[in-house]
Design goal:
heterodimer, A: 442 residues, alpha+beta, PmbA/TldD fold, 2 domains, 11-stranded mixed sheet, 6-stranded antiparallel sheet, B: 452 residues, 7-stranded mixed sheet, 24 strands
Chain lengths: 442, 452
Amino acid sequence: MSGRTRDELMALATATLDHVARGQREVVATEHEQQLTRFANNTIHQNVAESSLQLRLRVIHEGKAGVAQVRGESPDTVARVAALAEQARALHGASHAAPLPGPDGGADGPVAYSAATKGASPELRADLAAVVVREAERGGVLAFGSVSTSTTRTAIVNSEGVARFAESTEADLITVVRGDDGAGYAARHAVSVDDVDAPGAAAEAVDTCLRNQAATSIEPGTYEVVLAPYAVIDLLDHLGWVGFGALAKQEHRSFMRLDERMMSPSVTIVDDAHDGLVFPFPFDYEGVSTRRVKLIDQGVCAGFVYDTPTALRDEVPSTGHSLPQPNTLGPYARHLVMSDGDATPDGLIGSVKRGLYVTRLWYVRDVHPLRTIITGMTREGTFLVEDGKISQPVRDMRFTQSIVDALADVRGVSSERRLALGEDASAVLAPWLHLGRFTFTS
Amino acid sequence: MQSLTVKNGDVLDVELSEDVGAGVRVIVDGAWGFSSIGRLDGESVDRAAAEAVRIARASARVQREPVRLAQVEPAHGEYVTPVQRDPFEVSLDDKMDVLVGADAAMARVRGLTVREATLEFVKERRHFASSEGASITQTIIESGGGLDATATSDDEVQTRSFPNSFGRHQVCAGWEAIEAMELVANAERIGGEAVALLSAPRCPSGLMTVILDGTQAALQVHESCGHPTELDRVLGFEAAYAGTSFLTPDLRRTFRYGSESVTLTADATRPTGLGTFGWDDEGVPAQRTVLVDRGLFTGYMSSRETASVLGEASSGTMRADSWCRIPLIRMTNVNLEPGASSLEEMIATTRHGVFLETNRSWSIDDRRLNFQFGTQNAWEIEDGKRLRLVRNALYSGRTPEFWRSCDAVGGPGEWRMWGVVNCGKGEPSQAMHVGHGAAPCRFQNVHVEPAR
């Protein structure tokens, strides 16, 4: 379904802002369209589209603050959201909400946008699914997965003069291919649906599946590992979750000890919302321009991401990493990029005497955030590596491991990297990693 | 919806929200299509319906068999969550008083880094109509609240939550549910426990007896019984995302899932559960299904489509988390039915073990067999006595072996309906509110260790 133009959405946001006469006001107007075609057992079994407009209004006045949010449209939507915000503010007790930021002169770009994705049809999505299904049928196995396209227009205006707009798109193909006794996985993410490599993903997943049949169990213990990017993103994503935000630092919950070397010199991680490889987006949910932040510099803890409330506390500028305010989560790094190395994936495997190759991780949860201990399972492609070669598939295993400890013993980094999405849809660009020690518990 | 949060003595958030729209699901040429729109005028809904038809025709391009649905009598009627006091009739000031009072009580504890108190109220009006002739109106009312107290040191972060973790405990009920939680009365206690955990000894390790409190029992049921008895997972519908299930149809009525003490039901008729309603989102009446009968695996949660694969009627568990998403098989209230024991008796008859309270971490494999959970509190038990608080407890195992080792479940007096508000499933992802009735329960020879 067609959406609003930039001018139309900005006008709606401004009209909402102007509907409340007093105090500091902020409007986040989001118009979102998403289409997703899902397949299982070589058949499209779910196929959906959604479109919605959401207005979020925050009012701060006389030491009180209130927030209203309305999704859906009716003739009185603007008046309704304004009335709800005033109702919330009027009944609010004492608040020390941070003042709203003013304009910072940042440009509304670069932004991840593709007209091809915006205009993608259900027939195109079905045809991409068919590419995977046909490849699975050729391999005598079954394909499962999804093809999705989405377009989001975001307008942010506030009473201090902030006026930002961006239209962004995303296209994703995810597949699990299953045989009688084992499975393979592949995923591709792109700004343009034209850049989603369905044949490549299909071939990769079928190949992994066919090599991953009749896996055997091995003893739990500590192994050298080569992690594919699908697995590495989980490590980086959880570091962001438990430690890269300034609120975690201020509440003494972050593992990061600034200026201290905690990881291998091979590890450099930045948050870069301007990097064209990680769905660039120019500003955060306060309308503040998002800056590039070096988080880990050659193994040394180098910095945190900030929003306005945490920046005020530390008397530094916001880095433009705010989630919708107010929130209890704090600022969040959503565009993580890990630096590449000079190895090939095969070269990393070739340097392992006896260890494991792990395609992806699953159900990863924090066990001890301060020590970055996580637990989870391997899934869809775990292989024993012996004398530099993948020798046999092994049953999925549970790991319980400190991320920081794992990244302190990096023995190789690939030059090739893959874009993947974290569990909360943050974009992560990750290489293959050869790690010296990774602990599997069952 | 109303959401209120007080953090460290400051009113962090008062948020009022509304959400309006319609979704249209169709079968055309034997294939599914769905479209939704955030407007309720006829022209917009017509557009959504037309798009759903086009999408269904696209689905038919990649299809092996046409969709078949189990029959259901078209339903007509209305359902409203019974409440003693509508939470939307209670003033925001009264609600804020509860949060400010609880925060003040936590603040009396020295050494807390973060204090959070939250209330949430939901009123949802849902209309369902089908071309088969169904027409249903339901009003679902939810009330939830919770406290989190966090203490930190150089090497520890310890959080205690009340009544449950994940931000709050929630039920389909009115303001009376918030009053029954006694948030203010429990605030200082949980704050003190968070601080005590910083210096508590580490949890012992080894094979031992484990007693779970009701909240952790509820999560154990959720992950290791609720999800694997969802028939769409069994049939591969979720294989690329949430995963599949070890409970395949050939195991039904022959596989020993648990001990004789273990009876598990999916019951959408049980009062106050977050999965309690009149009809599901296919218009199938709410019902009770026995999933595990005295240890024997017996049943699934199903939809009209998945039930037809087994030649059965739907068990009425199709639910969408909003108008813009399709219904999926979701847990209703998956309950561990009460036994005849009590927490006191379980502890008194335990030689060596731990009593575990309130979830802290949770992970399970994609077939729902290999799990590892951690809890906020762990109490060491020796020779029938609760000795001391220990920290960072983890327990792990495999689902059938674990449930077969269950030798005691608390009785009706300790059985309570718990709410889980963050159950993720489906693509695009949906977060469902589900209920779990549970009482404290005991398991033997469980692997326990501290996080290290």
